[in-house]
């Protein structure tokens, strides 16, 4: 089995899953090549068996202009069994090559279908995305294959790393600092939970606004901006509660990663979590933008360790039953084989 990936993401949950899946394929003996952006911090985490080519993806760069030719040439010379584009813009580079299945993997709701003119099958990581592409007119094949994460438990990072008292409740969130991720709502929630510390792992365009909000609300002394971390598992293991407050979240890889480390989750009622979370069973769910509701949910877990332990245990069961590495990898390999 030979597979080529086109992936031009930067840094975040989608990129972590890309690395997980590529490495899972490598463990199963799949020969792979991948075209990615230069200087990605996660490149060295990819199996050395994978042939990596780097290319800029800026619209007016020489690399970007030559990419369609490069992808077509790679397909014709290497003759893969499958071509896999990650996200709509990468799908625009899918060559019109007839010798294999051409897949576009979607982790969000595409606004239109013209990205996929050379795609045979859309692989959507939630049923909601699959329903959306059908609603906007996609007539070719659709499969729902979700994500998995690394389930290895790791040692917790020392709280001293982020100047946090050992006896304080630690709430963690992570991702790109953009408005839809809801970090502003979470800072407002922390202001309603005396004594709780908030660790924000990530970075982005909203960082300055978030720092100012923490100052304005008088909680800057309890909010820690940790920046991007190569391996977030040790931070998740140290946290008492993980909160995802996004207004739009197609799946929520960060929830799966939290469950893998045994950390209870509070989530907004965004698209992905509503598919696989059950309020009060494997997590607590709060209306989007409801800072007071998030504060109450955080306090509920912080004040009763038994609730947190039960939610974390049920969350881990959901992870292993619905999002296992073996099941997800098998589903992709079955798809590749069925279209040969």
Automatic annotation (TrEMBL):
It comes from the Bacteria. Pfam families: Glycos_transf_1. InterPro entries: Glyco_trans_1. Coiled coil: none annotated. Residues 159-317 form the Glycosyl transferase family domain. One of its GO terms (molecular function) is glycosyltransferase activity. This is Glycosyltransferase.
């Amino acid at each position: 089995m030979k597979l080529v990936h086109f992936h031009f993401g930067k840094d975040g949950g989608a990129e972590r899953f890309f690395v997980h899946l590529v490495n899972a394929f490598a463990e199963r003996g799949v020969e792979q090549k991948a075209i990615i952006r230069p200087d990605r911090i996660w490149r060295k985490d990819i199996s050395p068996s994978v042939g990596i080519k780097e290319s800029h993806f800026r619209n007016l760069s020489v690399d970007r202009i030559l990419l369609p030719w490069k992808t077509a040439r790679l397909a014709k010379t290497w003759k893969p069994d499958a071509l896999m584009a990650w996200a709509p813009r990468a799908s625009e580079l899918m060559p019109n090559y007839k010798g294999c299945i051409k897949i576009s993997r979607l982790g969000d709701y595409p606004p239109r279908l013209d990205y996929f003119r050379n795609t045979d099958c859309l692989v959507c990581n939630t049923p909601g995305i699959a329903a959306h592409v059908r609603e906007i007119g996609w007539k070719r094949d659709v499969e729902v294959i979700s994500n998995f994460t690394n389930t290895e438990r790791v040692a917790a990072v020392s709280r001293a790393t982020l100047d946090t008292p050992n006896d304080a409740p630690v709430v963690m969130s992570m991702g790109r600092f953009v408005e839809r991720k809801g970090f502003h709502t979470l800072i407002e929630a922390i202001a309603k939970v005396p004594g709780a510390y908030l660790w924000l792992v990530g970075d982005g365009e909203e960082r300055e606004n978030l720092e100012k909000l923490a100052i304005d609300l008088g909680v800057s002394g309890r909010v820690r901006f940790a920046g991007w971390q190569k391996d977030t598992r040790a931070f998740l293991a140290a946290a008492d509660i993980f909160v995802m407050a996004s207004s739009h979240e197609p799946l929520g890889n960060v929830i799966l990663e939290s469950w893998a480390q045994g950390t209870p989750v509070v989530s907004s009622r965004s698209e992905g979590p509503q598919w696989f979370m059950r309020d009060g069973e494997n997590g607590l769910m709060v209306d989007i933008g409801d800072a007071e509701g998030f504060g109450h949910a955080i306090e509920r877990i912080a004040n009763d360790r038994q609730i947190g332990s039960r939610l974390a245990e049920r969350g881990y069961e959901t992870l292993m039953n619905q999002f296992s590495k073996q099941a997800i990898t098998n589903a992709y390999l079955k798809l590749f084989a069925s279209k040969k």
